[in-house]
Structures are given as structure tokens and as C-alpha cells.
Design a protein that fits this description.
By secondary structure, the protein is α+β, with helices and mostly antiparallel strands. It has 11 helices and 8 strands.
């Protein structure tokens, strides 16, 4: 790393090559966003995500055919966590009333099959569960055990009542166990988000990112000069747009990556904004010092000197963070993939923009306006 202490690279003179490179990435990203779109997670679209893990590798086509005609409506089925895992996504929030009634009858029949002649009644029901009341308290524990063995989710409420879950996951389980009896599976997770909540989260996420950029610009305008604040915010927009564009591009080219925008990804974008601005502020701070010390030097020389002086710190910080995020990206699984990809790709682009976008923009602005910066 000592070689980085004596760098003397003319970064400013290479700004036009950087503009072409950045412009190409931005155009590719925007084309992908416009024509392919970004895949929104359940946090924003609303609906239900159900992850299933099979004992043996499965064919996605078999799963789709098994679920097409049961009444789930528009569904999306894709691999999740390997060849033996799938993710089923539906816009439904709960089991439809007619299906719910059929499932309750099926549970009643199962109970009566385990204990012929048992007296029970439905004391309460909702879209997600049903509560049975038993006249004979001694059979509840045995019935609960039998129901659990057959894929139901019972829980004892008190001495007289048994609660049995009736959810979309149960409905899907029942359909797949009938269609694919030879391949055992378990439900790993079931997430529900209402459409209103999803819409509010989408709006709040956009507001959060925009407000972060505005507050950063105001802060930098006070700490440095407005042109520095403008350069920093442009670099941040550059980072966010390119990273978002890569989401859309890679999702279209490699659907198996399961890259989608979720709340955790929005958190990663906000983290990226903070990380990238930190790099930029370090360079700007050194530029300000150099302008004070080398008052007669050209602004391009002071900017190049600042970037070279901070290069060791920039690379060490970025690489150490990148190694940690790479572990999450490659070994964190599907749940963390979007979050890790945002940080991994964003850190690379953010480091690049601190060197080739933010400071060169300041130089470009001063060159065009013919104003001298003084501190």
C-alpha cells in the first residue's frame, strides 16, 4: 500500500472518459428500467409470499401446473434458495371465502375420522384460522397431535378450544400434497402485506431517499461551497440511478438471481448514500485544504493532489467493506441477496464517483463559470 502514498495521477484530465463511461451505464440502466422495469418485492406490491423447501429437487413447471387451477389467481413461481426451494407469490391476502369453508369442512371431517362420534362446534372463525369447541376435553390433545401430523397447524387455546390455522400456505400445501405426494416439503416462511401498506411504503421510500439527498446538499453547501454540494448530490444521484439500473438489467438477463426492490434494499440504498457521501466529503475536505495552502496553484492541480492524497484511505476503506459485503452476497442466500448486491455494486460505483464524478464536476463548473473558489 506504500506505493499509493506517492501517486501523481491526473484524474481531472480523464474526466471526459469517465463521463462517457458513466453516461453509458446510466443509459443502459434507464433503458432497462423503462422497458424491463424493476421487480418490486411484496413490501411494495402487496400480497403473499410463501417459501417452500422440498426434500428433493423439483421442476418449476410441475409446481405451476399443480397450482394453476386451484383459484390463486395470478401467481408467480420461482426458485428460492436452490433447486429444492421455491417461492410462490400471489396477490391474495387470505383464503377466499368459498375455499375457506371447504377447508373448515375438511378439517372437521379429519377430526371426525380420527375420533368418530366426537362432539365439536365452530365457536369462532376468521380468514386465517378457525376455533373448534369440544364437549370432551380429553380428546383435544390427541386430535391436535393427529392434525399436526397431517400438515395442519393446531394450537390449544384452553381446555375446551382448539385453534387451527387456515391460511394460503395451508391451501397451497393441500394442493401440492395431492399433486406431488412423493416429494415431502415444509413451509419456510409466509409473509403478508396489504396493497395499501405496500403503496404507502413505496411513497415513503422515495421520500426518504429524496429528503436524504436534499439534507446532504444543504449540509455541504454550509460546510463547503454550493458548487461542492451540487457536485456531491449529482454523484449520489449517479450512484443510485446506476445501481437501480443494474437491478433492472440483471433481473432481466438473469431472473434466477431474484433481484427485487424490498424494504431491505431501500435501507441498502440509504446506507449507500451515506457511505458514498463520506468518501466524497473526505476528498472535498482535502481539496479545501490544498486551495488554502496552494493559493496560486490551478484548481485542477489541487483536485488531483487531493484525490491522490486520499487514495490510500479510499481504497482501504472500500475494499475492507467490500469483502464483508461479498460474503453476504455469495453466502447470505436469497433473502439477503438484494441488500448485499446493492451495497456491493453501490460501493464500487460510489468509490468511482467520488474520484471521477464529484470533484471533476466542481472543476467543470468553475471552468465554465470562470469563477475562482476561495475559502
Amino acid at each position: 500500500m506504500r506505493v499509493l502514498d506517492n501517486l501523481n495521477i491526473d484524474f481531472v484530465s480523464k474526466r471526459k472518459v469517465a463521463y462517457i463511461f458513466s453516461g453509458t451505464l446510466i443509459i443502459l440502466g434507464l433503458i432497462s428500467i423503462i422497458f424491463r422495469g424493476v421487480e418490486l418485492g411484496i413490501d411494495f406490491k402487496g400480497g403473499t409470499d410463501i417459501a417452500l423447501k422440498f426434500d428433493n429437487p423439483i421442476d418449476i413447471g410441475d409446481i405451476r401446473s399443480g397450482l394453476d387451477n386451484i383459484g390463486l389467481g395470478n401467481i408467480e413461481v420461482k426458485t428460492f434458495g436452490g433447486e429444492s426451494g421455491i417461492l410462490v407469490r400471489t396477490e391474495l391476502q387470505s383464503v377466499p371465502k368459498n375455499i375457506y369453508s371447504d377447508m373448515v369442512v375438511a378439517i372437521e371431517n379429519a377430526i371426525k375420522e380420527y375420533h368418530p362420534g366426537v362432539e365439536l362446534s365452530v365457536s369462532d372463525s376468521s380468514s386465517n384460522s378457525v376455533i373448534f369447541k369440544f364437549a370432551d376435553q380429553t380428546v383435544i390433545e390427541n386430535i391436535s397431535s393427529q392434525l399436526f401430523k397431517n400438515g395442519y397447524q393446531p394450537s390449544r387455546l384452553d381446555d375446551d378450544h382448539l385453534v387451527v390455522r387456515v391460511s394460503l400456505a395451508d391451501w397451497i400445501e393441500e394442493a401440492l400434497r395431492t399433486k406431488m405426494p412423493g416429494n415431502h416439503f415444509v413451509v419456510q416462511k409466509e409473509d403478508h402485506v396489504g396493497p395499501k401498506i405496500g403503496s404507502e411504503l413505496k411513497q415513503d421510500s422515495i421520500i426518504a431517499v429524496v429528503l436524504a439527498l436534499i439534507v446532504i446538499m444543504i449540509y455541504l453547501a454550509f460546510r463547503f461551497k454550493f458548487v461542492f454540494a451540487l457536485g456531491a448530490v449529482i454523484a449520489l444521484f449517479h450512484d443510485v440511478i446506476i445501481t437501480l439500473g443494474m437491478f433492472a438489467l440483471l433481473h432481466g438477463l438473469i431472473p434466477a438471481l431474484n433481484l427485487e426492490i424490498s424494504i431491505s434494499v431501500v435501507a441498502a440504498f440509504l446506507t449507500l448514500v451515506g457511505y458514498s457521501i463520506n468518501d466524497t466529503v473526505v476528498v472535498f475536505d482535502r481539496v479545501r485544504e490544498n486551495i488554502k495552502i496552494h493559493k496560486t496553484a490551478d484548481l485542477a492541480d489541487n483536485i488531483n493532489r487531493a484525490i491522490n492524497q486520499t487514495m490510500r484511505r479510499t481504497l482501504v476503506t472500500s475494499l475492507t467493506t467490500l469483502f464483508v459485503v461479498a460474503v453476504l452476497l455469495f453466502f447470505g442466500g436469497d433473502v439477503l441477496r438484494g441488500f448485499a448486491f446493492t451495497l456491493f455494486f453501490g460501493i464500487i460505483i460510489g468509490t468511482y464517483s467520488s474520484i471521477f464524478v464529484a470533484s471533476p464536476f466542481v472543476y467543470e463548473y468553475v471552468l465554465k463559470s470562470k469563477k475562482r473558489i476561495q475559502f
